Amino acid sequence: MIFKRTIPLLIVFGIGVLGFMQYYVPHPWSTAFRDEMTTWGMVIGGFATFLGIYSLSHMHATRILRQVPGWGYSIFVFIGAIGMIAVGIYSDIFGPLASGTKHEVDPFDWGYDNILIPCSATVFSILAFYMASAAFRTFRARNLAAGLLLAAAIIVMFGRVPISESVSDWLFNDRMVIPNLSKAIMDYPNLAAKRGIMLGIALGVISQSMRILLGIERSYMGGGD
Amino acid sequence: MRTSQNRPQHYELIRRIIYVGIALAVILSYFIDYRQKFTPSPESKKVFDKVESLSPGDHLLISIDYDPSSEAELYPMCLSLLRHCFKKGVIPVVMTPWPGSVGIAKKGCDEAAEDANSMFGKKVVSGKDYAFLGFRPGATNLILKMVDNLKGAFDKDYYGQPTQGMEALAGVNSLKDIKLLVDLAAMGTVEWWIAYGADRADIPMATGTTAVMTPDLYPFYQSNQLIGFLGGLRGAADYEKLLEIPGRGERGMLAQSATHVLIILLILGANIHMFAGRFGRKNEGLS
Hints:
The complex is a heterodimer.
Chain A: H1 2-21, H2 28-66, H3 71-91, H4 107-138, H5 144-159, H6 163-172, H7 177-213
Chain B: H1 9-31, H2 42-53, E1 59-65, H3 71-88, E2 91-96, H4 102-120, E3 131-135, H5 140-148, H6 150-153, E4 180-185, H7 190-201, E5 205-209, H8 218-222, E6 228-231, H9 232-243, H10 248-251, H11 253-286
Parallel strand pairs in B: 1-2, 1-4, 2-3, 4-5, 5-6
Helix pairs in contact in B: 1-11, 2-9, 3-4, 3-9, 5-7
């Protein structure tokens, strides 16, 4: 019990309080402590990469071994990962297979520029189709609140693109009427709502942090209590 | 429950028509060589003015917090910022806390360096006229470390050159020595940089984000924690217009106008259809 619960709780409490206090104590010891802790944090963050690689490999290897529906796609995860790691090691001028000079056409950069960037951008751009379809199906003025949301969405959507300036000029003889209306929605109702949400989240984070520091919240240690 | 299997057939047809319409609006817009007139937003202008106010030799830090999926919106911003720096002789310091973003950061530096030669007749060299520090893990810890000791956080640049004694980083020991911090983000890193970087180092900060993230920036902008921001592709287009170097941002404005208008027409059409249906049912009930 001492090693599983008490000591981890004391470590969390001690490091948490010291991490909190260093914000308010400008003493050189406090600064040195922060410097040391941030270095540790960066090293631990580096290890998260290995954890991610293990987790991804384990998940896709299991899918292939069990031949679950769509397991063929998992093979591409390994082809892509191993392929990029191999050309990355080969391309690194300081790496184990280095020729000592930078390759004129770096195979790693070529793969990144010609495979990863277009594939990622394509997948992300599909969002535009889903958004258009979802907007068509969901933005309905069924009641007053939905009508207000619909009006605000149309004004902001239209006011953000250059054509709104030409239309404003044609309708109101002033280029900036619709863009300014769009800006007013973003500057006031949007700002107020966002600030409220952010303050709520911040208060939640503070209270959750206090619960962890004081040992009330222990689910991060496992066991679910 | 309505699923894709038992959804009425006309729904599927409408969905396909919408997809084809959006595809055509985007693709055809890129074949039309027409530049729309627009006025840069005050938020974008403040970012531009701040960079414009920097003196040659000042340092501007750009954190690349986006991956290739957001390249379309954020890469033009990165390119314009770097071009502006090279034009003015400001020294950009480029880094990323994301391993997947190193390639896109390097691509930006390489392209802007080539442009500096072709556009301004300046030969810019890594380590001398700009610093590309590459990737380090640690996220918020990395930012905190940079506030205390930037060269400790990045002991070598991407190319393996030691940062100690690097000409491009002369006079820069910590984030406090940076004159402007710009976070180009498609992730929730803007708040990290504000809380752990700009506020602690007491330096001005600006940001460029994807359009969907832009509404989140207004509270920080109003409280002056951000001096300005570039919002989505329109923000990139604003910066290109202010810099008077057209690029992919301005080129994309026609496609963005076309798709926004199409979506608005679709929404209005759906609402007219809904109200017409209600009106018809009401009349049937009366008769």
